Amino acid sequence: MAIILILLLLSIPAVTSKGSHSLMLLLTYIKGETPFPVFSVIFVLDDITVGYYNSETKIYIARGNTTDEDDVVDPNHLSTISDYVRGYLMRRSNHLRPANNTESHVVYQVLGLCEQRDDKPTQMITKSAYRGSTTDELRFFDGKFTYQGTLNYTAQEIKPYLELSMWRLETVYYPACIKTLQSYLKKRGTQVKRKVKPRVRLIQKSNSDSGGFRVSCLATGFYPRHINLTLFRDGQPVSDHEITGGDLLPNGDGTYQMRKSLEISADKHKYTCSATHLSLDNKLDVTLEYDHGEPFKSVIPSVLTVVALMVFGVAVAITSWKRRRADSIKSVYSAASTSEESVDTT
Predict the structure, then answer these.
(1) CA atoms within 13 A on the CB side of 79
(2) Residue range(s) defining the domain that contains residue 75
(3) What are phi and psi of 147, to 5 degrees?
């Protein structure tokens, strides 16, 4: 269940950008006996989970807010719509399920996402997945539809399905989604519009696997999640095929982090990490400079320590030798003086 949810979320293209906001609804229908509700809906504003609803309790639960109940969704309206959508998902699931399928349960999910930019509606996407695999995607943008499907429909089968889907999307789902998005922004605007600056570090570590070194640019603690992180070598962007990492990961405090790494040898170059983010007035550059020997700086302290100990040991040995020699000479003079005194006395 959780894996299917993650895969479906990751498969949605990043449509939000600077100055835009989105509302995403993940609808899940499960047929069979499981510990999960038969039907559930998760509401996500930008990247914050703001609400949850399921067919067992039939109660909308606000999530992630620090104030009173959001009062964004009409419970009666939501209950009526969810019953209709649940029936639709059940019929679609039965239609997609093979005749000889004997699995104890199946999962059918639909992800709907609408976006507005600069307070103007821009687009909506719906994406479906059956048993963890994407079945189709319908996008409405600038008054036009784009459809992608992985099912083997004939032209006669797909035409009525698409016509009905496009009508629902344009006349029902899109307006309702945008209206709900705007209502959420009024209640949760402070959360999603906040700006937290990234902390950026350019660090170098030895790589025991390759015998070389790894230069990593790490940006963490930033919000919103959109960030551009670029590694430069001698002022030129490093090719993408040389870069590893670059995945956006969440922190526990609601902020995000991203790391990009580059494998290097003991060469002489100037490396720079550049970050641009909505919270920064200008780009943030962090530079790592070193000469030919600097990649071995981790070895230098050990070598210097050994040399210092050797020098100290030699110095101690010389001092001891001089002291023994002085004591020896002193003993010789002392013995000679005693002998002379004995001669004079006789």
Answers:
(1) 8
(2) 2-192
(3) -125, 140
Confirm whether 158 is domain-assigned: yes
Note whether residue 323 is domain-resident: no
Q: The CATH number of the domain where 258 resides is what?
A: 2.60.40.10
Q: Which residue type occupies 185?
A: L
Strand partners, 227: 277
Q: Are residues 35 and 116 in the same domain?
A: yes
Amino acid sitting at position 17? S
Helices (H), 98-207: 155-168, 174-192
Residue 51 resides in a domain:
yes
d(CA 120, CA 44): 19
Note the pLDDT tens digit of each residue in 162-195: 888 899 889 988 998 999 999 899 888 888 888 9
Which tens digits make up the pLDDT trace of 20-66? Answer: 899 999 999 988 788 889 899 999 998 888 889 998 888 888 887 65
Phi, psi of 305 (to 5 degrees): -65, -45
Residue 138 structure tokens? 């319908």
pTM score > 0.70 for this model? no
Helix, coil or strand: residue 86: helix
pLDDT tens digits along 255-309: 999 999 998 886 678 899 999 998 999 999 998 755 444 443 433 444 444 445 5
DSSP line for 244-295: EEEEEEE-TTS-EEEEEEEEE-S---EEEEEEEETT-SS-EEEEEE--TTGG
Domain assignment present for residue 232? The answer is: yes
Domain boundary, last residue among 296, 317, 337: 296
CA angle 89–94–97, rounded 5-degree value: 120
